[in-house]
Structures are given as C-alpha cells and as structure tokens.
Write a structure and sequence with these properties.
With about 325 residues, this protein is of the alpha/beta class. The protein is about 30% helix and about 25% strand. The strands form 4 sheets. It has a 7-stranded mixed sheet, sandwiched between helices. Strands 1-2-3-4-5 form a 5-stranded mixed sheet, with helices on one face. Strands 6-7 form a two-stranded antiparallel ribbon. Helix 1 packs parallel to helix 2 and helix 3 runs parallel beside helix 4. The chain is globular and about 70 Å long.
C-alpha cells in the first residue's frame, strides 16, 4: 500500500505522462525527456526523471523509491505503452553505487541485449541505459543541436569535449564541410565513430570530412589548432571532472584560446552545465580573456527541462568572434 502522499505523487506523474501522450510525443520516434523532476518544479518528485527512447520508457531514480511505487507506475502505464508501441519500461537506480538497473516490463519481441538508440529525425545515436551516469546522448542539449543545424552549412567545425560526437553528426547532416572532434576519452570517440557510421547512409553525413582526436584538450592546443581556422567552435566541457577539467578554474583556458582557433566572424557555442555558476561567469570570462567576442544570445532551454532556477539549468551562449585568426601564436 502506498501512503496518501505517495498516491498523489503517482497520480501527478501519470497525469504528466498522459499529457505528453495527448501532445503526440509518442507518435514520434524522437527521443525526449518526458518528466523532469530535477528542476524542482514538482514537489515530492524531485528525485525522478522519465526519458523516452523509442521503443523504451526509462525512469531514473536519484533517491530511494518504493518498489511498489515503481511497480504501480509501470502497471498503469502499460495501456499507454501498448497503444504507442512502447515495448519496455526500465529503471536506473542512480543513488546506488554503479547505477544498477532493471527492466520492469518487456513486451514480446523486445530484446534487452540489442543495441538501443536515441533518435532525432533521420539521425540515430547509440546509447547505453543503466550501469553508468549518462546514456551517451544528452536530451537537454537539443537547443544547442538546433542552433548548430542552423550554423553548420559549409563550415569547418571544432567540437571540443565531443564525448560521443552527437554534435558532429548533427553538423554533418546540416552540411558542414568538416568536423574535428576532440576528447580525451578514447571509448567515447569510438562510439562517436560508430554514430557517424550509423548515419552514413545520409549523403550529407557521408560527405563531411570528420576527424577524431583523442587528446587532453588543455595540453594539446597545437594539434587542435593545426586544422583551423574554424568557422564554428563548440565548447561543451564537463562542469567537474577531477584530474581533467573543472569549469570554475579551467574554462578561462578555453576562452583565451579562441583567437588561435576561430576565423573572423566565427560562431561560438559556449556550454555551461555547472549549477553553481551563473550567466555572469561566462560574461566575465569573455570580457577578461577574449573581448573580441560579441554575445548574441543565450539560447532558450528545452521546454522538456523546466527548472525553478534559470541559472541552474544547462546554459548555452551564442558568441561571434570579431577578431582575426592568430595563425602564428605558439601552443
């Protein structure tokens, strides 16, 4: 038996998912965040999120949840899943070391051992659900992907901290001439190469020259600069990765390199996923380290990720470099 408060939370969650259903979200194969409790907009449900990766619904628990709550949620969602050809319902327990996971429901014909994908229109990206903190595809980065789709055509693009190279695939599909992906994680870059292969049937993706550099970004500026100058720069670093990158102290090292990387008029996407750092953090860095950059916009966050505090959301900024490429600057 659930407590009265838990019953209300279950009803609220089901109502939210049904509202998404009425909006036609499940009629598309596009991957989406279905419920985002982490933004503190739904009291009592701050520890839960639900994602849709066709044909899977995936719930992530960031704090302990009653098993009966999850069982009832799964049971009451079965009619919706059946109506929308959703074949499985899984859960990840992020509050437990190692982020273990389990399938609460699998329909006939679903093979949990087969590769799973995030989908975005005609594009698809390999993901891994459970056993790790991230699936390999960041749903909240959709505003950045849309921005890139509008700025990539004919451009040479630098994708720093490329992870599994979703930006690269989107840029290629949008007509980029070349993308240089840089990340120190060789495993992530191998997945990035696979993501390009999965989409190679698209002429634009197949026609884009793509490089994958497994480099420690803060120590490899010469190799990163060499293919430049770039017409689009993407800086998407982790907020805190011990021994690799800490945004508060290391982001400035990226910004001061912009003149060595960017051609005149280059578009720059600066991403900041550190809740403790506000918009003024990036503004001050640009003013101090690269005043030749002009701020054009802060991108509107995805409506799938409501947040009570705007500064705690993923922050995406569009800048334009109005200086000249410093071709001969030493690494």
């Amino acid at each position: 038996m659930l407590s009265n408060d838990t019953e209300k939370q279950l009803a609220q969650l089901l109502e939210h998912v049904e509202a998404k259903n009425q909006q036609g979200v499940f009629q598309s194969k596009d991957s989406r965040r279905i419920f985002h409790g982490r933004g503190q907009c739904y009291p009592g449900l701050e520890h839960l999120v639900i994602d849709y990766y066709s044909p899977v619904l995936w719930i992530v628990c960031f704090a302990e949840v009653e098993k009966s709550f999850l069982d009832q949620l799964c049971e009451q969602l079965k009619p919706l899943m059946a109506a929308n050809e959703i074949l499985a319902f899984g859960v990840s327990y992020r509050y437990v070391r190692g982020a273990p996971s389990e399938w609460l429901y699998c329909a006939d014909g679903f093979d949990a051992e087969e590769a799973l994908f995030a989908q975005r229109g005609d594009l698809r990206f390999q993901i891994q659900l459970g056993g790790r903190q991230n699936s390999g595809f960041f749903l909240d980065m959709e505003p950045g992907r849309k921005w890139l789709g509008a700025h990539a055509k004919g451009k040479k693009i630098l994708n720093l901290f490329s992870y599994t190279c979703a930006f690269s695939v989107v840029a290629a599909a949008a007509g980029a001439s070349e993308v240089v992906n840089v990340d120190m994680a060789r495993g992530a870059l191998k997945t990035g190469q696979k993501n390009h292969q999965f989409n190679h049937h698209l002429a634009e993706v197949a026609g884009c020259k793509t490089r994958f550099l497994a480099e420690n970004i803060l120590k490899s500026w010469g190799r990163i600069r060499r293919p430049g100058p770039y017409g689009v720069l993407i800086f998407d670093p982790p907020s805190f990765q011990k021994g690799s990158f800490v945004a508060k102290q290391d982001y400035a090292k990226l910004v001061r390199r912009i003149p060595q990387l960017a051609e005149h008029g280059a578009d720059i996407l600066l991403c900041l996923n550190a809740p403790e750092l506000g918009e003024d953090f990036i503004d001050e860095l640009i003013a101090q380290e690269c005043p030749e950059c002009i701020k054009l916009a802060r991108l509107m966050p995805s409506e799938d990720f409501p947040d009570r505090n705007r500064d705690q959301q993923l922050k995406l900024f569009h800048y334009r470099y109005e200086g000249q490429w410093q071709q001969d600057t030493r690494a």
